[in-house]
Amino acid sequence: MKKPHNFILNFIASSCLLFAATGAQAVEPLALQQIMKDLGKNMQVITDGISREDWELVEKTAPLIADHPQPPFSEKMRIMGFMGTNMGRFKAHDGETHDHAQAAGNAAKAKDGQGVILAFQKLQTSCYSCHSEFRKSFVEHFYGKKDAVQ
Ligand code: HEC
């Protein structure tokens, strides 16, 4: 038979776990974060396609990056609120990503490997440009400073 103090210790231990779990989930990730994760995955698929010269794979993956889903309207409003007058620049980076992903897809369609690689490099630069300009302050704003380093 369990001794009563075991019960109490178990209760305290599970309360701590519950507290830790809810604490970690205190800030809901934005829909944008999942969109970004998917962009990252699709970039890996394209890298793999280039290595295998599987231009069909590149051609069908590029539009998933170019025309990636958008966050819901309410989240867009929050992002716009945070970006303020920088919203134009933020959008311009996204436009670059769109254009270069589309160019990579077109080059893949033409089985132009060198063209795919050139467009892919510009595509990576467009991701990087937005990240280096906005990601740190964005993450600090929406998740708090602790999570700023990813
Ligand atoms: C217009 C700006 C912008 C562009 C362009 C952009 N990103 Fe991001 N990215 C962000 C922001 C802002 C975050 C932080 C989002 C968050 O944590 O909620 C982010 C985060 C990420 C993350 C980390 C997600 C995680 O697990 O926390 C990955 C991966 C990523 N982006 C991939 C990409 C790739 C690949 C591209 C280009 C194909 C790209 N991004 C283009 C703004 C951008």
Overview of this structure, please?
- The chain is an all-alpha fold and 150 residues long.
- It has a single domain (29-148), classed as Four Helix Bundle (Hemerythrin (Met), subunit A) (Up-down Bundle), CATH 1.20.120.10.
- Helices cover 80% and strands 0% of the residues.
- The chain is built from 6 helices and no strands.
- The mean pLDDT is 89.
- It binds heme C (HEC).
Low-confidence parts: none
Inertia-based shape: extended
Q: Could you spell the SSE succession in H and E letters?
A: HHHHHH
Q: Which molecules are bound besides the chains?
A: heme C
Q: Assign the CATH superfamily.
A: Cytochrome c/b562
Count of the separate structural domains: 1
CATH architecture heading? Up-down Bundle
Strand content: under 5%
Total number of beta strands: 0
The averaged pLDDT comes out at 89
Helix proportion: over 70%
Q: Major β-sheet, in short?
A: none
Determine the structural class based on helices, strands and strand pairing: mainly alpha
How much is the radius of gyration in Å? 22 Å
**Tally of separate helices:** 6
Q: Briefly, what CATH class?
A: Mainly Alpha
